[in-house]
Amino acid sequence: MMKKKQATILLCEDDVNYGMLLCDYFKQKGYKVDYAQDGEEGWQKFNAKSYDFCVLDVMMPVRTGFELCKAIRMTGSLVPVIFLTARTAIEDVLEGYHCGADDYVLKPCSMDVLMCKMESILSRYHYQRSECPYDVGTMYYDSVKQEIEVNGDLIHLSSKENDLLLILAQNANRLVERKVILTSVWHNDNYFASRSLSVYINRLRKVLSTDDEVRILNVHGKGYKLLLPEKKN
């Protein structure tokens, strides 16, 4: 599990006083915190760096917490998200979970209880990432170590190669839209990012070429699929 001192939280809260209070509390607990006062600022920060956890208010200017959570999930990110909000209607709670949140916490809330919820979710999230490497045909892919074992040899992946292969492996045999890949890995979908994606796809194809049953399929005009053979019982 990732140590707390290494984890970075994206906190989006339009009440500045409450936001600063939460920031101070999280920092005292050993976390790094980036603070945004509205949903659009939160979206810009999310696209600028990687986070280990997102804590979102619902009613924020420019972009609501629901809209922000949906946008985060559209990138393919599985980062844990908790809504921390005063909106108690059952319709809002259901909407929060439908957006892809891991939990929906009502204000006022004990900060210690909030922290326990966050640490429990973080523990499961990082366990899943670190303890569940991927079988890619006859190859063994460890996204944490950024390595693929091929015929007993270890091939180290660059950060971009690893991020790209991870999103494809998480969605094996399913289409991952080009825009989702670009936004998730490059945080941009411009011409240069698109050209870079093609270069990295070709690099990964060479790495995976030792297994004839594994390939990265280009679905013209849509995106890519990592095609893996069905596992035999």
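That was protein one. Protein two is written in the same sequence-then-structure order:
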Amino acid sequence: MYEVKDLTGEKAIETVDEGLRQYMIKIFNYMGLGLCITAFAAWLVVNTPLLGMMYNVNEEARTVSLSAIGWIVLLAPLFMVFGFNAILMKASASAARWMFFAFSFLMGMSCANILWSYSGESITRVFLITAATFSGMGLYGYTTKRDLTGIGSFMYMGLWGVIIASIVNIFMHSTGLYYAISYISVAVFVGLTAYDMQKLKSLYYASVNDEEGRNKIAISGALNLYLDFINLFLSLLRLLGGDRR
């Protein structure tokens, strides 16, 4: 258990534990708000003329393809993720917070087609499965004494493989590769959920005397957990969604 230098005994332990609890609550508040923004953005696209601007919808064939604007919206979150850490180093915690919310909104716009493609029952069922899986693995990562660094490194290698395979399959349209990517993605993001939770706990102890740095870590951590949840949800939806509209 970490102890603050100017305190001793039980008082020190209790102080740090309370700080850790508040820190984790802040992370999950950011993450939860990000998910709400994403859901709202997806609903907004489906229920406004934005749908026609972003997607070419064929009602008879029940198919959806991206327009030029749709491709821009689809790729924008990817570029924002790669630039987020660089901006986080220079920007204030407040600016990073708003960037995370903007990212969440764009992510919702890019995922809006799932509201059109799957029934509400399927989306709700898979969301609950995702929430249960995410909670279980997050709790494991938070409480385990095992060092998950090696697993995290392996999962990030798998993530790059998923990204590359997904880009390739945009052009190949291979059903087999589509399902293989989905299964691998589930394994990758289940592992990353546990790893990211443990990492966030360690980063708290490393930044216990740096309030601004801890606030930035909380936002970065919320982004990581948000991405774990969203990608796990999308992967499970592709496998378990089943009854497309």
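DSSP finds nine helices and two strands in the chain. Keep this in mind for the problem set.
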